[in-house]
Every structure is written in structure tokens, then in C-alpha cells.
Design brief:
The chain has about 100 residues and is mostly beta strands. The protein is built from 1 helix and 7 strands. About 5% of the residues lie in helices and about 25% in strands.
């Protein structure tokens, strides 16, 4: 369904963790696009009804791509870039904000 446009020079692959499993993605790539291309997108579930969501607008307007990145909730994958060692986790419902964080 998704096809990668070849970059010149090719980007180095780095490992990230997606819901506890290791995934190799191109360093510096758009996180949402890279996850979709690798069939590794951790679709979130909405607070109202638990409906699955994934990237829609790819420009930071719709908020359907919210995940937790490196322990920080409510991050938009369409506005993040891939870097080695990052941890991405599915977000279910509204994120609980702990006082003193964020």
C-alpha cells in the first residue's frame, strides 16, 4: 500500500521500539510515514468508544496519530522524526498527565 521514495544517499536504518517490539526504520524519516511503510503503526484508541485511529492529515491538524514517544504522551507521529533508540507506545484513550511532567 505504501511505497518508499528512494533518497539519495540512502538513509541509514536505526532500531526503535514500537509497543515493545524492535523495528528498523530510516533515520531522520517522518515517524508516521516510516511506521506506516513498515506496517508497524501502533494505532491509538479514542477516549470515546475506543475506536482505532492512525495518521490522517500528515500535517499536525487532526491529532489522529497521537502516541507516547519516549514516555511523553500526546505526541503526533506526523510531526516527529525517526531517531535510533526511541520508544513508541500505543496510546489508549486520553493520556493521564502526571503533575510535574510535560
Amino acid at each position: 500500500m505504501f511505497r518508499t521514495i528512494e533518497m539519495q544517499p540512502p538513509r541509514q536504518l536505526v532500531e526503535i521500539s514500537v509497543d515493545g517490539r524492535r523495528v528498523s526504520l530510516p533515520e531522520g524519516a517522518n515517524l508516521a510515514a516510516a511506521l506506516l511503510g513498515a506496517n508497524a503503526y501502533p494505532a491509538r484508541r479514542t477516549p470515546a468508544g475506543g475506536v482505532s485511529r492512525a495518521p490522517f492529515c500528515m500535517m499536525g491538524v487532526c491529532f489522529d496519530c497521537l502516541v507516547e514517544i519516549d514516555g511523553e504522551p500526546n505526541r503526533q507521529t506526523c510531526l516527529a522524526t525517526v531517531r535510533g533508540g526511541m520508544t513508541v507506545r500505543r496510546q489508549t484513550g486520553a493520556a493521564q498527565i502526571v503533575e510535574g511532567q510535560g
